[in-house]
Design a protein that fits this description.
about 600 residues, alpha/beta, Signal recognition particle alu RNA binding heterodimer, srp9/1, Rossmann fold, Helicase, Ruva Protein, domain 3, six-stranded mixed β-sheet, five-stranded mixed β-sheet, 16 strands, binds adenosine-5'-diphosphate, binds magnesium ion, binds zinc ion
């Protein structure tokens, strides 16, 4: 629209200029005086006329005093004849220089052409302007189907495998891919089929995009980078044509790598039939399948794709010959976390006594992105306090900040609210410390943070993949510690326990329905189905009878009640310890692991075993 008004402006401007020029041209060709033939005759007789030019009927007259004038003669008659009729003496006429011109000078043509051709030219010019604009729009329409695939050079930001910590297995797989692109002969001679598609699978922030970039940095072949969301358009067929374009570009540049990030945007299972634009996505996916099949054995193009939802990908995408290699990127374990922290500490100034290992211990479940964020937060914190280097304190502080949100020391809390929080958190901590096999308490705090009033941080001693029933029961009891403590001490319960109860209930229900860890025995109940379009577990299909449902509810209730009793028993038995913890928390607001252990020592608590 802006373009249009701009063009209008130009058109009007040209018109104005043209008319000005026009009028100027006519003005100059308009001599000042017009004489009638009789006046001319008088002037000739008086000897004032120097020259007369005849051009058609028009007479251009130059007087002796260099003035100019025009006149018209009679149409049919010659000039001399006309003048004679007006009484001009032949002698006087002889002194006048008379020339007859064919009316063919530029004046004639100009007079003829300017009024006719110029408007045509103008109109033509206007048309041209309009045309040009229309063609611009059309070009846009045509470039629609082209992909905005980017050839990544990553200039000075080149990443290699060295910059990616951990992920050993994933790297090994990808090293092979890189090697293949470099020496395909070695593989082809053995009759091996070239890997075609490699799917990087992992939770958000585990380094999928980063690893792909590292492959680009290592392989020294052209690396095309695109995101599947760029193939999603409103118009059916556009995505497919962009896919075609991307693959064609990669093929032209072979050997090369084509990286499609977040492929689940188009790679969802077909035929879900939910939501609009489904057709378009199916076409796009089909085109990917076709393109993947279109490579022959020798084509040295490898397709890398990344997703965090492999479960929703279309099975056709994952069959051999397509994305048959799946590289799993796990959440980092303790050693990997330390390595990642080290990588992100490289460009920061840390105090020499900083121990990143201890930070790694406190961050199970953190992804690479979380850890990178943590290091950045610690630098920000140090800068805010005008420190020259980041200390251990800021590192720990940022762990909690990333985990729970920023501290809210500013929030005004009444003394009674503080007491409730101190006993609540003290209850969690004491229960955790009093059950065998429970994770050790790393920190207790009653400083409000994010949405929580206070928190108790307990961390596993080692990374684990498997969890046992005993651990779950200990967790349940620990969840109930806050609730039980409030009830025991104040005889009342606050809303502060609600999120504990929610988490505990969910855990208890999972124990019954998913893990077979209740008296209902080794069986799972319910089939949770994902509505593909929403990508969420929103409908849990009930595949059991109402009678069983009652039993499940009873079992869950039983677990919860049991956990509550356990917590209550512990807190009653060690009431003195609980009071002490709450008292110290009210004074100091936070207790670190060592302080907490020292505090409990005099009470000689013997951890109980729960079954
Ligand atoms: P995603 O898996 O969601 O694509 P990214 O690759 O974008 O995650 O990772 C986000 C950021 O997390 C990276 O830019 C990097 O700083 C950090 N990161 C993730 N994994 C690692 C790792 N293994 N080593 C070093 N940094 C990592
Ligand atoms: Mg990514
Ligand atoms: Zn709590």
């Amino acid at each position: 629209m802006k373009n249009f008004s701009k063009n209008i402006f130009w058109a009007v401007l040209t018109l104005v200029i043209a008319s000005v020029v026009f009028s100027m041209v006519y003005q100059t060709s308009q001599p000042p005086a017009k004489l009638s033939l009789s006046e001319l005759a008088l002037k000739v007789n008086a000897g004032e006329v120097a020259q007369i030019k005849v051009s058609g009927d028009t007479l251009s007259i130059r007087l002796k005093n260099d003035q100019k004038a025009t006149s018209k003669k009679e149409v049919e008659a010659g000039l001399t004849e006309s003048l004679k009729n007006f009484g001009v003496q032949p002698e006087a006429l002889a002194k006048v220089e008379i020339s007859v011109q064919d009316p063919s000078g530029w004046q004639f043509w100009g007079g003829l052409l300017i009024p006719t051709v110029l408007p045509i030219l103008l109109i033509g010019f206007l048309f041209w302007l309009m045309f040009r604009q229309a063609r611009g729009g059309m070009n846009q329409a045509f470039s629609f189907g082209r992909s905005n695939i980017r050839l990544s050079t990553f200039g000075n930001e080149r990443i290699t495998f060295q910059d990616v910590a951990g992920l050993k297995e994933a790297k090994e797989e990808l090293v092979e891919v890189v090697d293949f692109l470099r020496n395909p002969k070695k593989y082809l001679e053995l009759g091996a089929r070239i890997p075609r598609g490699v799917l990087l699978v992992g939770q958000p922030g585990t380094g999928k995009t980063m690893l792909a970039r590292a492959v680009a940095g290592e392989s020294n072949v052209p690396f095309f980078h695109t995101s599947a969301s760029e193939f999603v358009e409103m118009f059916v067929g556009v995505g497919a044509s962009r896919i075609r374009d991307s693959f064609a570009t990669a093929r032209k540049a072979a050997p090369s790598i084509l990286f499609i990030d977040e492929i689940d945007a188009v790679g969802r299972q077909r035929g879900a039939g939910l939501g609009g634009g489904n057709d378009e996505r199916e076409q796009t996916l089909n085109q990917i399948l076709v393109e993947l099949d279109g490579f022959d054995r020798e084509t040295r193009v490898i397709i890398l794709a990344a997703t965090n939802r492999p479960d929703i990908l279309d099975p056709a995408l994952l069959r051999p010959g397509r994305f048959d290699r799946r590289v799993l990127l796990d959440l980092p374990d303790l050693n990997d976390r330390e390595a990642i922290l080290k990588i992100h500490a490289r460009d920061k100034i840390l105090e020499p006594n900083c121990d990143l290992r201890r930070v790694a211990v406190r961050t199970p479940g953190f992804s690479g992105a979380d850890l990178a964020n943590l290091m950045n937060e610690s630098a920000l914190l140090a800068a805010r306090q005008n420190k020259k280097a980041v200390s251990q304190e800021e590192l720990f502080e940022s762990v909690e900040k990333v985990l729970l949100g920023p501290e809210r020391r500013g929030r005004v809390i009444s003394q009674s609210e503080k007491e409730i929080t101190a006993y609540h958190e003290g209850g969690h901590a004491l229960v955790a410390a009093s059950i065998q096999g429970s994770d050790p308490v790393h920190k207790v705090s009653i400083i409000s943070r994010g949405f929580t009033g206070g928190y108790t941080m307990k961390l596993p001693i080692e990374d684990r993949r498997l969890r046992t029933r005993k651990q779950f029961l200990a967790d349940l009891a620990m969840f109930m510690g806050g609730y039980a403590s409030e009830k025991l001490v104040f005889g009342d319960i606050s809303t502060g326990a609600s999120s504990d109860l929610k988490e505990a209930s969910e855990l208890a229900r999972s124990l019954v329905t998913k893990y077979g860890m209740s008296e209902l025995g080794p069986i799972t109940f319910g089939k949770s189905e994902e509505l593909i379009f929403l990508g969420r577990e929103i409908s849990a299909e009930k595949n059991y009878s109402e009678a069983i449902a009652t039993k499940i509810d009873a079992a869950v209730q039983d677990l919860m009640a049991h956990a509550y009793l356990t917590a209550q028993k512990i807190l009653k038995a060690h009431r003195k310890a609980l009071d002490k913890i709450a008292q110290v928390l009210l004074e100091k607001e936070t207790l670190e692991q060592e302080e907490f252990a020292a505090l409990l020592k005099p009470f000689k608590i013997k951890p109980i075993v729960i079954t």
